[in-house]
Amino acid sequence: TSEVDFNAFGLDLTAIQTAANSNGIYRGASGAYGYYVDFHANGTLTINKVTAVYNPVNGFNGSAWVSEANDKKTWSALSGYTNIAIPSNGVIFLGDNVWVGGTVNGRVTVVAARLPDGSSAGADIYIQDSIRYLNRDGTNTLGLIAQQDVLIPLRSDNVLTIDGALLAMHG
Known about the structure:
- The structure is a single chain.
- The chain is mainly beta.
- The protein has one helix at 10-23, and strands at residues 25-27, 34-39, 44-53, 57-60, 65-68, 72-77, 84-85, 91-94, 98-104, 107-112, 125-126, 131-133, 141-146, 150-151, 165-168.
- The strands form 3 sheets. Strands 2, 3, 6, 7, 9, 11, 12 and 14 form an 8-stranded mixed beta sheet that branches.
- A hairpin with a 4-residue loop joins strand 2 (34-39) and strand 3.
- The protein starts with 9 loop residues before the first helix and ends with a strand.
- The mean pLDDT is 92.
């Protein structure tokens, strides 16, 4: 079997950002901790700015002991981004860390990345709350593309449901 060169996906981040700029949703850096995309069963979503995270916790990341603060604590809805429809092309590109949760009713891809790729710390996606499809019949889909990692924070739902395809590009 041949190996997949995940570095090649980095070339597509700019194309995805372009698609988000034309018929999707594009937001640059949040100026805070990142964004929280809350999907609603009626086919809409709300994009929030994460304004605080819980104090760091210590843990082993597979190669070293680290102190991380990746549990969203408080957030506020961005003006103009409350209960909005999933974009027609289904592309949401956010230039910062992203938390996701809720019920997906539609077809959507969420990208968390800081461009240009490799110029700074890569953006992560956090699944702290369950993210479900309204129906699991193929009519609803979710793609999550993190420039760095897709992570489950310590303070996540006790029973966590994750529907979607997840890609951690450099994680």
